Amino acid sequence: MEGVQNTLSIVNREQKEVFLTLYQKFVSVLQSQLQVIEASGESLESSRWWEIGLGWFLELGRRYSKEVTSFSNTLEAIVFSGDGDAAVDERITNIFKEICRMEIGRSVEMN
């Protein structure tokens, strides 16, 4: 039984690391592209790139909302808590918060 618990612990840690890396990369790319779009004078609403990138970010959150919610404190502390120049744009942070609320809403509805 101890071996199974150790294996489960390792799997959970690895899954958490994957989500952490994935969200760091996603946020980095979205932040970078957001700066490019704004520098070009294009509006976010008309940017096809932003629409698609944001769609994939939302899909990732929706598809794995249970896992994201269980790792949300770690994700928030490491990925979404930058200060000053390193601060994550509020539009991206708000989407992450929305994803977390979706899972909380689902678990309330199921009970």
Question: Mind explaining what this structure looks like?
Answer:
It is a single chain. This protein has 111 residues and is mainly α. It has helices spanning 2-40, 48-63, 65-70, 72-78, 90-110. The protein is built from five helices and no strands. It starts with a helix and ends with a helix.
What fraction strand?
Answer: under 5%
| Run of helices and strands | HHHHH
Specify the biggest β-sheet.
none
Q: Report the CATH topology name.
A: Serine Threonine Protein Phosphatase 5, Tetratricopeptide repeat
CATH-level-2 architecture: Alpha Horseshoe
Overall structural domain count: 1
Characteristic terms for this protein:
111 residues; mainly alpha; Serine Threonine Protein Phosphatase 5, Tetratricopeptide repeat; 5 helices; 80% helix; elongated
